[in-house]
Amino acid sequence: MRSEVSDPPADLTPSQAVNWFFFQAAKRLEIKEELQNLLTNPWRELAVEVPVRLDSGDLKVFKGYRVQHSGARGPYKGGLRYHPQAALDEVRALAALMTWKTAVVDVPFGGAKGGVQCNPAELSVDELNRLTRRYTLQISPLIGPTRDIPAPDMGTNSQTMAWMMDAYSQRYGYSPAVVTGKPIELGGSYGREAATGRGVVNCLGEWASLTSTPLEGKTLAVQGFGQVGSWAARLVGNLGCTVIAVSDVKGGILSRHGLNVNELLKYHSQSHTVVGFPGAEQITNDELLQLDCDILLPAAIEAVINPNNADRVKASLIVEAANHPVTPLADRVLQESGKTVIPDILANAGGVIVSYFEWAQNTQQFRWEEERVNKELSRVMSRTTQAAYQTAIKEDVSLREAAYLIGVSRVVQATELRGSF
Ligand code: GLU
Q: What is the pLDDT of residues 76-113, one digit of tens each?
């Protein structure tokens, strides 16, 4: 790989880390400095107070954010995260990732992200309902079916989207297209819940056929057993891979002969953790990341592969099912040791692709069959994986740089063509 590029600093904030990847592409594309400034700073940021009356009678005020990174290519689009670490800089980083993600897969949206700093596991259903409604009203001047369309992310789900849609509709009239990832009964799309995990598997399959890599019998470890990790684990068997390890916040499990994913799903639905799954060995999250396996799927939080553990990752292929699981310095270490990283803005784009299908179905008031959703998703994932792979070969860069080259050039073109300044 190119040696003239200096090493990224180890102490970057989340948004600086995402911008680091952007700058690499911007340099190669010879993007003017003034435009680089515009594309590394969000167009709009909103910080709100979210007061919630708890079941105990106490009033608690949470911090909430909505960051709109770029609207050059269409309405802002991106999830809403409920997490104790959902701080402004983190949300900013995730909003920028959405800009590059929607551009690389070429869906007509910009990039945004929302966050509320809370621990959803500590809140009751009623408290979460009140919190979601209050947050929605606080950000309601900024969102709308043609302005900014939130979706689920970590700590939120289709129920959260139902409450958001209802709160927004109470004020502005019935508006299903204001959010995606809704329950089917409220205009959600078939296949949306599985979409990110399914897209990860589509992407892996396409990469394997482009590189003539046989997947049959390859061992795989998945960090995170939420919506993304659990669907990826469920579907990856279709490619012939064997899931040998899985983890969640409470810890991990390992079975060298392969885990029975269907049994694990049943166990997880009762015990709400993978820990204690009969017949499997207990491991930690750190051990999972350093496991002797062929493919590693980080499907949980940011920066889990960092300068402290990057040189101990043994898998030769890392597929970023989570957003920003690998820091820039760790990415450099992985590259230098000859490993392949399929980047987040490509690998986990299935969610926003099917969000686009949901939004299109809502605006046309026409529902697609699940088969059509999955077929179109697989078509977009294959097309994008091919484009990134070909760019990587042509430019002699990593898949991450290739994906950024494609995404950034599309956003730059749209920004310049609009000529608004
Ligand atoms: N939260 C998902 C992501 O990070 C989906 C966003 C969306 O569908 O708008 O890509």
A: 999 999 999 999 999 999 999 999 999 999 999 999 99
Which ligand 1 atom lies nearest to the CA of residue 81?
A: 1
Distance CA 253, CA 281 (A): 5
**What stretch(es) of the chain map to CATH 3.40.50.720?**
195-347
Query: Which CATH number among 3.40.50.12160, 3.20.20.70, 3.30.70.1290, 3.40.50.720 corresponds to the domain 195-347?
Result: 3.40.50.720
Domain 43-174: state its class.
Answer: alpha beta
Rounded distance from Cα 217 to ligand 1 centre (Å): 31
Give the residue, out of 153, 157, 198, 373, with the most ligand 1 atoms within 8 A of its beta carbon, to mutate for a pocket test: 153
How does the average pLDDT of the chain come out, rounded? Answer: 97
Task: Indicate whether this model's pTM tops 0.90.
Answer: yes
| Ligand 1 and 111: CB distance under 6 A | no
- Cβ–ligand 1 contact at 153 (below 6 Å): yes
Q: Is 375 a catalytic residue?
A: no
Q: Which of 77, 101, 113, 218 is catalytic?
A: 113
28-47 mean pLDDT: 96
Q: Which atom of ligand 1 is nearest to the CA of 323?
A: 4
- Partners of 322 in the beta sheet? none
The predicted-structure confidence for 270-297, as pLDDT tens digits, reads as follows 999 999 999 999 999 999 999 999 999 9
Cα-to-centroid distance, 336 and ligand 1 (Å): 30
In the chain, ranges of CATH 3.40.50.10860 domains: 43-174
Torsion 127-128-134-135 (CA) sign: positive
Q: Is the CB of 352 under 6 A from ligand 1?
A: yes
180 lines ligand 1 (CB under 6 A): yes
pLDDT at 252 over 80: yes
Query: Closest Cα to residue 221, out of 256, 255, 246?
Result: 246
pLDDT score at 369: 98
22 pLDDT exceeds 80?
Answer: yes
